[in-house]
Design brief:
Blueprint: H1 8-18, H2 33-39, H3 45-58, H4 60-77, H5 80-93, H6 97-117, H7 122-128, H8 134-144, H9 149-171, H10 176-198, H11 210-219
Helix pairs in contact: 1-9, 2-11, 3-9, 3-10, 4-5, 4-8, 4-9, 6-8, 9-10
Length: about 230
């Protein structure tokens, strides 16, 4: 991949946007991990790593990330029609109500936050309307702050992995050191997935996420729940 050059200004913006401290509620979602841990499908650092690697290689996160790229590109040139199209497209691609609601809730929270700290972004937020998917909001924010798209995509995938590893640390449970070790091990795959996603054409957008969908559907009736998905 090409070398990324960021100014201090852009680097700090992407750190803020991808931070686990960003108040969008990501910590309350496990994306099916809670079901998978209870069923015994994921029981260790190794099985969690295998699940995350499969998601990065074939799963729904690739669609989300690809749509984030398209939202960024549309926001950069002020193409509101395309921005709205991809927001509707991504909503339709969510296979369960829990996954769709989590994307909408996080997207709404991010747009509300940005509207308060960067009021000039409200025109794009209002154009997309409500509900707004998180990937769309992330793309709009990255474009507004003129963050390099490759850096934004890396940050998006890294933030996703961090959130699910944190959930896995709590649920399995794992130690904090094991979680950081796993995040480090995923870095080459995150970089590889970024390169692949950047090169996808619209008619190449696809995923194999039936395992995630089944886990998400079962989570709704799970006896005990720590997470919202």
């Amino acid at each position: 991949m090409d070398t990324i050059t960021l100014t201090d200004h852009h680097f700090l913006h992407i750190l803020q946007l991808a931070s686990s401290a960003l108040p969008v509620g990501a910590y309350s979602y496990s994306e099916g991990l809670e079901t998978l841990v209870e069923s015994g499908t994921i029981t260790s650092q190794l099985t969690l790593q295998q699940w995350l690697e499969a998601e990065l290689s074939y799963g729904a996160i690739r669609l989300e990330a690809a749509v984030m790229v398209r939202a960024y590109q549309a926001a950069i040139i002020g193409d509101l029609e395309t921005l709205c199209y991809w927001n509707i497209w991504l909503s339709a691609a969510r296979e369960t109500q829990e996954l769709r609601n989590s994307s909408w809730q996080m997207g709404r929270s991010l747009m509300q936050l940005l509207g308060k700290i960067q009021p000039e972004i409200l025109s794009l937020a209002n154009a997309v309307g409500n509900p707004c998917n998180y990937a769309i909001a992330f793309g709009i924010a990255s474009a507004h702050w003129q963050i390099n798209i490759q850096a934004a995509l890396l940050a998006y995938l890294h933030s996703w992995a961090t959130n699910l590893i944190t959930a896995g640390v709590k649920l399995i449970p794992l130690g904090q050191t094991a979680g950081q070790e796993l995040l480090l091990q995923l870095q080459p795959l995150i970089s590889h997935a970024t390169a692949e996603i950047m090169s996808l054409n619209d008619d190449e957008l696809s995923c194999c996420s039936w395992g995630l969908s089944l886990a998400s559907m079962q989570h709704e009736t799970q006896y005990t729940r720590l997470f919202r998905s």
